[in-house]
Amino acid sequence: MALDKPYTDVPGTIIFDTDMARQGYHLNQFCMSLMKAANRERFKANERAYLDEWPMTEEQKQAVLDRNYKRMLELGGNIYFVSKLGATSGHSFQHMAATMTGLSQDEYLQMMIKGGRSPEGNRYVGEEKKRG
Predict the structure, then answer these.
(1) Minimal CA–CA distance to 77: which of 101, 52, 106, 57?
(2) Residue 48 half-sphere exposure, CB side, CA atoms within 13 Å?
(3) Among the CATH numbers 3.20.20.80, 3.40.50.11540, 1.10.700.10, 3.30.565.10, which is that of 15-91?
(4) Above 50 in pLDDT, residue 1?
(5) Are the C-beta atoms of 71 and 80 separated by less than 8 Å?
(6) pTM above the 0.90 mark?
(7) By CB neighbour count within 10 A (0-12 exposed, 13-18 middle, 19+ buried), where does 123 fall?
(8) Domain ranges for the chain
């Protein structure tokens, strides 16, 4: 029996729950492996070969190669683990977040300085029904 997940209808939000943890287990383990300098060097020397040592889906591997951080999260990546790949790639957390929102780093920074994204258009569907 599937669990009711009322939190899945928040636009632009990916919830990391047990199902996502299961889906992204190997992706997250790969990312955590980058905490060791030797593994970072092996990965940088031949990214595809290093990725092929992990039983990830091809879609997960391609997201890593493309540095598509948002797609990694959609495929079960946990932001705290995926940030290890960002750091290995020389990307700040701000850079990663900006790419996930489709904004430039400066646009993202300005949005955050102003208090973050507007809740309008970003409420969960059930909330919109209650308001309307």
Answers:
(1) 57
(2) 2
(3) 1.10.700.10
(4) no
(5) no
(6) no
(7) middle
(8) 15-91, 102-132
